[in-house]
Amino acid sequence: MNGDKAVITGAPGHAGSFRIADYVRSVSDPDGTILMNTQNDAIMSLNPTATIIWQSLSRGADIQGVIDELKQTTDGYGEELADDVNKFIRYAVTSGLLYPQP
Predict the structure, then answer these.
(1) What is the number of H-type helices and E-type strands within the chain?
(2) Where do the H-state alpha helices sit in the chain?
């Protein structure tokens, strides 16, 4: 483990904040979140951890802010959480759900 600091990669070459695409809709409950891409009608179901990531990003948190929120609400550790966040963000960016903020 790298102390309490997580290695942050997110989208390649970007460690800042992200913007949710205008065409993505979401609904959450205690079990998770459902995302819908209204451009192609694709639906994605998020587990509770991914829901925390999504909600944190929707509030404008940068990657480290998302990791810090997960540390407070889960039993994960820095590198493990950073890996989860980075995987989720890479998938969401690749899928067109998120865009890196300049």
Answers:
(1) 3, 5
(2) 48-58, 63-73, 78-94
* Domains in the chain: ranges and CATH: 18-97 (3.90.930)
The total of other beta-carbon atoms located within 10 Å of residue 51's CB is: 20
Q: How many Cα atoms sit within 13 Å of 8 on the Cβ side?
A: 14
pTM: 0.81
CA-CA distance, 51 to 57, in Å (whole number)? 10
* pLDDT tens string 19-56: 999 999 999 988 999 999 999 999 999 999 999 999 99
CA dihedral of 49, 51, 55, 60, whole degrees rounded to 10: 60
Task: Give me 47's structure tokens.
Answer: 């587990």
